[in-house]
Amino acid sequence: MHKYILKRIFLSVFTLLAITLVLFTLLQFMPGSPFNDEKLTDDQRTVLNAKYGLDQPVYVQFGKYVSNMVQGDFGVSYNISKNTPISQLIQTRLPVSIRIGGMAVGLGAIVGLIFGVIAALNHNTFWDTLCTAVSVLGVSVPSYVFALALSYTFGFRLSWLPMLYSSKAEFASSVMPSIALGMFTMASIARFTRTEMLEVLGSDYMLLAESKGISGAPLILRHALRNAMIPIITVLAPLIVDLMTGSLVVEKIFSIPGVGSLLVTAIQSNDYNVVISLSFIYSAMYIGIMLVVDLLYGLIDPRIRITKEGGNA
Amino acid sequence: MSELSVSHPLTGDAFLPDDFELRGSTPAEVDSNFASQNYWKDVFKRFVSNKGAIVSLVVILLLCLLAAFGPKMTGYTYATQTLSEKNFAPRVPGLEKFGIFDGNEALRTTSGVKIINGYTQKGLTDTYYWFGSDTLGRDIWTRVWEGTRISLSIAVLAAVIDMIIGMSYGLISGYFGGRVDNIMQRIAEIINGIPRLVVVTLLMLVLPRGFATIVFALLITEWIGMSRIARAEMLKLKEQEFVLASRTLGAKDFTIIFREILPNIIGQIITQLMFSIPTAIFTEAFLSFVGLGIPVPMCSLGSLISDAFNSFTTHPYQIIPPIVVLACLMLCFNMLADGLREAFDPKLKEM
Predict the structure, then answer these.
(1) Which of A29, A249, A282 is facing B206, going by the closest CB pair?
(2) Does A290 contact B at CB distance below 8 Å?
(3) Is the domain of B207 the same as that of B324?
(4) A125 contacts chain B (CB < 8 A)
């Protein structure tokens, strides 16, 4: 098991490093320059390049960048807000994004589980069809379509919830973005839970548990759902990652001051440093989540733990 | 062998030719209740019995037809701007008499609802914008179908190239196994470790914006899923007897991979292809929405939604058509893929 964990961690770190290199190389080829103000003379440009270390060889820039990033120093923003450290820009925005993302995942997971269990327990009935239809819709329709629909009906026509994010009413203005973002999670979890539950419900140990006189909630929760949960946890990780993509658009629609909208602004204003840093953070989060889930999976399911102890993963 | 030398094991009597009787007179019975059927016929039958999948297929075909001929059905082109006729509500000849699609538009202001009609204000009795006109006075009907055409072509092209790359990668990796597989899988794992969002965003920034770049960005990220499926199927099949038989007969590795094994997994490949089309449509729409999509004056579903978003509270009719088409496409392709998956693998149907 230790060998497996070490191997996974090593691979993750290597991936992250590879990503940093790719990011860095790609950004060298980007069109435009952070100093494309026409009023700047060539001399001033040279001075600016020297000030930000852009005149040094690429590998020096890269080495310096990696060492800085390990220390949590992402450099300064060139364009969005001049000379502000990026870590500071991110610090204020990350909590907002994480809160909305967390709400979306929580909401999606809980509602999805409930839907999935209901569908499985009422297999081939109206409820099953309804849950399946909702989940097909949720998987197929992009989150920003939901965002726009919600924003128009509940924000604009009915004025129940604020259309745009405001820091004064944090909870109320997070509701619609969370629902819009969480729809995909909800639908996927519901679909998956249903399949897993159906499989578990048909198994021999459920028959045994039932014949031992266990029934009702303990039977479903302790015996069925617990076993069905194992594979569900693995799909949760890629879902969280999909959420990151969705958050870009949803943050734009509701003008949420989060990381996603920062990335969009950075892309549009050629702020290289911010783009690199955010890509790095996104990648790190992604790799971290994948790693945690992989290890968790091993902890939860004894069958996998045993196979992996064999050394060949 | 003319003389029978076999004797009965118990009695020791020699068998005579008359002891045996040929059973050729009555033909072997064929099970007519469960007649054996061609695999593809079976698949087709299961697919046709799936109502959702058939409806999806019809809707997709309809949308394809509209994407092909829609832009030519009105007199407008997707790029012509008539600035004097901007923000007109939908108006359709015939339907206007019934009080719908008559060019009336309700403007909601703080002082109440006000009905305005751009056509009558300008005295245009003979002008019809079936889906209305946008903020630059372009016909939305033409633009929506033009956008559908571009979105669909991007998605289908990217998905097909993905299929070829991913399938070959997965099949080769799975077939050779050992060190080849190990190295190929580590490479795929590292590429997969990079968030799609980051790759696509950076590529779009580095390369010139346009059709080819979007296709390229999509295929760099999407082939991994296909390669996984192909590899898993290969691992299942490569130990089977027909592969051994083929190898014994002297077939080369590549013949076995692409001529012997590939036809057996084509069902899974097609299913995965159908699933990757909506993903590609979605990613393209996402890119356009963020501002990295197809350059103006060309349009895609994503860029239409993005444009209309800015005025979607005042002129909601501008954003509805592209959103409905996008949602329909994604829904139908997903349902079609589901139907195909069930048709190819009936065991799944019980689930």
Answers:
(1) A29
(2) yes
(3) yes
(4) no
Three-state SS for A10-67 is: HHHHHHHHHHHHHHHHHHHCCCCCCCCCCCCCHHHHHHHHHHCCCCCCHHHHHHHHHH
pLDDT over 90 for what percent of chain B?
4
In a domain, B30, yes or no: no
ipTM confidence score:
0.71
Lowest-confidence pick of A112-121, A162-171, B296-305: A162-171
Nearest to A264 among B205, B290, B313 (CB): B290
Tens of pLDDT, residues B172-198: 988 888 888 888 888 887 777 777 777
Task: Give the architecture-level CATH label for domain A87-258.
Answer: Orthogonal Bundle (1.10)
Q: Same domain, yes or no, for B113 and B245?
A: no
Residue whose pair of structure tokens reads 């839907």 in the numeric block? A115
CB-based contact A264 B189, cutoff 8 Å: no
Nearest to A253 by CA among B312, B9, B38, B194: B312
Sign, Cα dihedral of B174, B176, B179, B183:
negative
- Where are chain A's structural domains? 1-79+269-313, 87-258
Lookup result for tokens 């050729």: B24
**Do both B266 and B200 map to the same domain?**
yes
Quick one: which of B129, B126, B25 has its CA closest to B73?
A: B129
Residue A311, pLDDT score: 39
Q: Give the separation between CA B285 and CA B232, rounded to whole angstroms.
A: 31
Structural domain range at position B112: 89-121
Interface of A with B in 152-171 (CB under 8 A): 152, 156
**B208/B280 same-domain check:** yes
Same domain, B115 and B228: no
Number of structural domains (chain B) is 2
Identify which of A4, A5, A16 has the alpha carbon closest to the alpha carbon of residue A288: A16
Q: Which residues does chain B have within 8 Å of residue A145's beta carbon, measured at their own beta carbons?
A: 323, 326-327
pLDDT bracket for residue B5 (50, 70, 90): low
Q: Count CB-CB contacts under 10 A for residue B212.
A: 12
Q: DSSP 3-state assignment of A124? A: coil
Residue B7 lies in a domain: no
pLDDT value, residue B1: 44
Rounded Cα gap, residues B8 and A125, in angstroms: 65
Examine residue B8 and state whether it is found in any structural domain, yes or no: no
| B35 Cα to chain A: minimum distance (Å) | 29
Count CA atoms within 13 Å of residue B307 on its CB side. 27
Rounded Cα distance between B206 and B204, Å, is 6
CATH number assigned to the domain comprising residue B147: 1.10.3720.10
Amino acid at B217: A
Q: How many DSSP H helices and E strands does chain B contain?
A: 12, 2
Q: Are B196 and B256 in contact, with CB atoms under 8 Å apart?
A: no
Are B288 and B294 a contacting pair, CB within 8 Å?
A: yes
User: Cβ of A287 under 8 Å from any chain B Cβ?
Assistant: yes
Same domain for B241 and B205?
A: yes
Q: What residues of chain B lie within 8 A of the CB of A15, using their CB?
A: 189-190, 193-194
| DSSP state for residue B291 in the 8-state scheme | T
Min Cα distance A208 → chain B (Å) is 22
- Which alpha helices (DSSP H) does A166-225 contain, by range? 170-201, 204-211, 216-218
For an interface test with B, which of A13, A198, A279, A294 has the most B Cβ atoms less than 10 Å from its Cβ?
A279
Q: Locate tokens 């009422």: which residue?
A: A122
Same domain, B249 and B106: no
Same domain, B233 and B323: yes
Residue A70 — pLDDT band, cuts 50, 70, 90? confident
